[in-house]
Amino acid sequence: MIGHDAAWSAWHDALAGERMHHAWLLAGKSGLGKMHFALAAARTLVGAGPDVENHPDIHVLTHLPKDDKEERKRDEGKPFEVKRNITIGQVRAMQQRLSTRPTMGERRAIIVDPADDMERNASNALLKSLEEPPVGTFFLLVSHRPAKLLPTIRSRCRTLRFHALQDGEIAELLVQHAPDANEATRAAAVTAAAGSPGRALAFVDLGLGPVAQILHLIAEQGDPEFTLRGELVSAIGTRPDRARLDAVLELARSILDEGLADLDHRLLPARIAAHAELVRLSGEMPTYNYDTGLLVMEIGTLLAGAAQSSGGAHG
């Protein structure tokens, strides 16, 4: 919940006003705590205490378990895989609830997290509710990439922007919340976070310190013998989950972003091209069934190519 002062000020001012806007877009990169803000804001909206976990007038639309097996894992409190999208069925089920009055008061909150991952039909269905919201119903759409949303959805929302933190703030947070991590791991986590406290803590939890060291070596000196790329595959593991791969891709992008201001402008095109390829891989990974080993090798190859453009050994 660090860095939310401006968002809270805008939210409380709106609550105190005569006519509160019915739809809010919480925009910013992932890991900034937007969902935590949405839940806390929803509690203030419906008059629930901070310790209330399952309020009948706070409804959350998010990724469901991928199948019955994963649903059982969820019910048992175990980690589980989720579907790629928020479906139109989920939106329609929510809309059926809107035909009744709120359970405990005059207001209810609908949270969509992340709204970017709604199916096209789900987005169109939600748009109808945003155009004609029931009295007392308020929407909070969590978005990591607002440009993916329908323009008509964005136009009906008041936007709250959540900004990245400074490196010093991330470092201080890690000292407080990850005291067992060594200095090198915390430094790598700050780089990987790119201003996102959630990503920094996830980096430490996932034990990506050794991976970060290898990625930095590849980016600095290339990998002409493919040795470092082999080490990278071993360090990441043969069957990493999506969260681990997402973190590795984010770290690789952050490494390419380092030192851009001081880089010879003639070397920028190759660095930018490698970064764009990493962004493409990040976007395709949830949809395409990539072979993990080949994906990791491709990440290393893109960094090695950037190293070549900077005068390092080629890959």
UniProtKB/TrEMBL annotation:
Signal peptide: none annotated. It holds the Pfam family DNA_pol3_delta2. The lineage of its organism: Bacteria, Pseudomonadati, Pseudomonadota, Alphaproteobacteria, Sphingomonadales. InterPro entries: DNA_Rep/Repair_Clamp_Loader (IPR050238), P-loop_NTPase (IPR027417). This is DNA polymerase III subunit delta.
